[in-house]
Amino acid sequence: MSLDITPTLTATEEARRQVEICNACRYCEGYCAVFPAAFAERSFSDGDITQLASLCHNCRGCYYACQYTEPHEFALNLPAALAEVRVESWARFAWPGAFARLFQTHGVALAAALVLGTALIFAAIRLLGTGAGDGFYAYLSHSAMVAIFAPAFLFPLLALAMGVRRYWHEVGGTAVTLADLRAALIDAGRMRNLSGGAAEGCNYEKGDRYSVARKHAHHAVVWGFLLCFASTSSGTILHYVLDMPAPYPFFSLPKLLGVPGGILLTLGAAGLAMLKLRADPALGAVAAWGGEMAFVILLGLTGLTGLALYAATGTGLVAPLLALHLGTVLAFFVTLPYSKMAHATYRLAALTRDAQLKRRAG
C-alpha cells in the first residue's frame, strides 16, 4: 500500500506552476493581455500572479488552444487557475472580509434573502406612514430615501477603495499618470480582452467555437448601468440645484436616460446569466459560481424592477413594486464590494498597472 504524499498547492502556487509552463511554450502569445504580461517576466512573485489573474477575462480561448490540458500530465487549465486566484484575492482584499467569503459561497441564497428582507423593511416603513410628496415620495419620503441610500452608496465606495489600495500595494503599483489611466480606460471600454485574441470573439460558452455574445452582453450591462447612474445623477441635480423635485415626465433627462438604461441592464444581465448556464463551470472558480450568478441576477432585477415600477405608475402595484425595487437596489449596493461587481475596479487597476509596465518597458 502506497501513500500519496504529493503536497497540495495553494491557488497562487498552482497558477504560478501553470504560468511558468505557458512562459516556456508561448503558443498563446497573440491572445489576451495576460500572455504579453507573463512573457515579459522570468519569475513570478505572488503579486505578479495576482496581477495576471486580474488581467484575465476568462474568455477561455487559451484553454481550447492548449496542447497541455488533460489528459496531458501538465494538466493545464489556466482560466480556472487564474479564476481561483482572482476570487481568493477579492476575498483577501475585501473590507471587511468575512462577508466576501459568505457571498462567494452562498451568493444566490444571500442575495434573495437580502432583497426580500429589505423589501419587507421598506413595506413596513410604508405602513408607518412616512410618505410625504408626489409620485414615489407619497409612499416613502425623500428624506427617508436619502437617509437610507446615502450610506448604502458611500460605504461600498469606501470598501472598494480600501480593497483597490491593498491590491495596488500587492502588485507593486506606483504613482499613476494620466497616460496610464487613459490607456486602461480605453482598453476597458473596448473590452478588447473579451475577444481572446480573435476578432470573432471568445470561446466562453461555445467551446472551440468563437462567439461575441459575452462581449455584447457585457457592453449592454455596462452602458445600462452607466445610463441608470446618469439618470439618478440628473435627478439629483434637478432636485437640489434647479429645485425641480420628482416625479418627472417621460421627456425629461432622468426618464430618457433611465428607461433605456433599465432595458439594457435587464437584457444584458439576462444574456450573461444564459451564457453562464451554458459555459463549462470547470473552467472558472467552481466554488464562486453561486456568488457570480447572484451578482448577475441582482443586476438584472435592478433594471427589471425599475422598469416594472415605472410601467405601474398610477396603479395599486406601485407600493409593492417600490418596496421590491428599493430592496433590490439596496441589496445590490450592500453586496457590491463583495460580489463580482468588484471585478470592475480590480480589473481597471490591473489594466492601469499593465499600462505602467508597458510604458516603462517601451
From TrEMBL:
The keyword Transmembrane helix applies. The chain crosses the membrane at residues 108-128, 140-160, 220-242, 257-275, 287-311, 317-338. Keywords: Membrane, Transmembrane, Transmembrane helix. SUPFAM superfamilies: 4Fe-4S ferredoxins, Respiratory nitrate reductase 1 gamma chain. It comes from the Bacteria. NCBIfam families: CitB. This is Tricarballylate utilization protein B. It comes from Roseicyclus marinus. The lineage of its organism: Bacteria, Pseudomonadati, Pseudomonadota, Alphaproteobacteria, Rhodobacterales. The gene is citB.
